[in-house]
Amino acid sequence: MNECCTTGFRWNGTPTGHEDKIGDQPAYIAGDNNKRAILMLHDVFGWTWNNTRLLADHYAKEVGATVYLPDFFGGWTAKEGDAWMKLENGKVSMETNPDVDWPAFFAKNAPEVRLPEVVACARTLREKYDFVGAVGFCWGGSVGFKLAGKEQNGLLDCITIAHPGTPSEEDVRGLSIPTQIIAPEHDPTFTPEAKEMCNRIIPTLGIEYVYNYFPGVVHGFCTKSDLGTEQEKKSLERAKAAVEYWFLAHMG
User: Fold this and answer.
1) Checking DSSP bridges between strand 66-70 and strand 131-137, what pairing results, if any?
2) Which residue of 25, 39, 157, 237 is surrounded by the most CB atoms within 10 Å?
3) Do residues 148 and 118 lie in contact, with contact meaning Cβ atoms separated by under 8 Å?
4) 89 SS3 class
5) First to last CA, the chain
């Protein structure tokens, strides 16, 4: 597994939402809008990661929506305070965890394996809300390609996919809803070849498409940026604004 997936910086702040369920999935929920919903698809740090919850709070406020951040790892999450979860000067790393068999973990939690749970959550929201958008990061971005496909029958109104794993050409060609991609310059999973494939294929699909390129930053920056570094901080703010704009532009 790439280091950029399992290392990053923890942001200060206390999430203000609450935990409940969406269908059968435990979820962190922020906001209380009864017409607009956003489904957040977490990265490998899981649904309890402080930064992702702070982002949920931010989107709920700035977009005016109820944001759902479900658990898609079957109860597993990176827990702050665990002996293997190093935290030094705000930087965290979980790659040294001796208790996680990473190949087995990713086999169990492969996007295609967890997709039925993700689809079930999206369907629950679709039945309740007038607008349903999604944003996925890293692992969640990979699932996002599949959730935005034709076979899901328009469960979403739009999606933002941020620094995903390498998508298959089939997943890219299957996109059927307005799609925004957030692409850092340095990314061992969303490679230059993957970027080129998306920018070659998606404009031919007849859907709205925006590609946002972020020079100088790395995979994972949307959820684990170093806010003490000016370029990373500015890139994160630009990415947050892009996500907000995409939702607001498709709310009708």
Assistant:
1) unpaired
2) 39
3) no
4) coil
5) 40
Can you tell me the distance from the alpha carbon of 211 to that of 9, in angstroms, rounded to the nearest whole number?
25
Could you tell me the residue range of the domain that residue 171 belongs to?
A: 3-249
Render pLDDT for 213-251 as a digit per residue (tens, 0 to 9): 999 999 999 999 999 999 999 999 999 999 999 999 999
Q: Which residue has the tokens 């749970």?
A: 117
**How wide is the angle at C-alpha 88 spanned by C-alphas 84 and 94, nearest 5°?**
30
3-class state of residue 67 by DSSP: strand
Quote the tokens at residue 160: 């933002």
**Other beta carbons less than 10 A from residue 215's beta carbon:** 9
Considering its fold, how many domains does the chain have in total?
1
pLDDT tens per residue, range 85-96? 566 666 776 665
| Residue 167 region by backbone torsions, left for phi larger than 0, else alpha for psi between -120 and 50, else beta | beta
Q: pTM of the full predicted structure?
A: 0.94
